[in-house]
């Protein structure tokens, strides 16, 4: 073997190692089927794309170490875009637990939804204390076209014990947290307030007659 060929062989070996698909794990966000059913208080609702912190919206599965830092590994990825996966899974879980028709935006049906749901996640992380924490706020608004409806602004702070901290347990705990959040939204529960809609939304084209 000639010496100049050695660097080329090393580069080929490194390339082969990096391209090995078995080194990359892709994990699903898949909430378990709820064992309970709650009354349908939502009806039909469009779920806006769930807002996630930057570290949680990244493709790599994030985790917190004992020093408080949030870290990740390029070998451990979410199987889908986290925001899309969270939105789709949450809409399905709310529908499953309550019988409501909740669909992620854009709304695909001719009949408009009765309500709109927005979820703003402030933390979605496998913490160093051994728990997966999902916290933030959610908002359920009536369509504002008929008046007399109710709008809800509520908080959630969900903790799911993980035991060993690894990507598989993180995915399982995140899925469980989504299922719990779905039950909370379906029952319109959690700390917060309810604001009554007192008048129909103003139609920008409903102008007074010209004389």
Automatic annotation (TrEMBL):
Residue ranges, annotated region (Disordered): 192-211
UniProt domain ABC-type transport auxiliary lipoprotein component: residue ranges: 27-186
Signal sequence extent: 1-16
Keyword terms of this UniProt record: Signal
Membrane-spanning residues: none
Bias (Polar residues) ranges: 192-201
InterPro entries for this protein: ABC_trans_aux (IPR005586)
Record-given protein name: Membrane integrity-associated transporter subunit PqiC
Organism (species): Paracoccus aestuarii
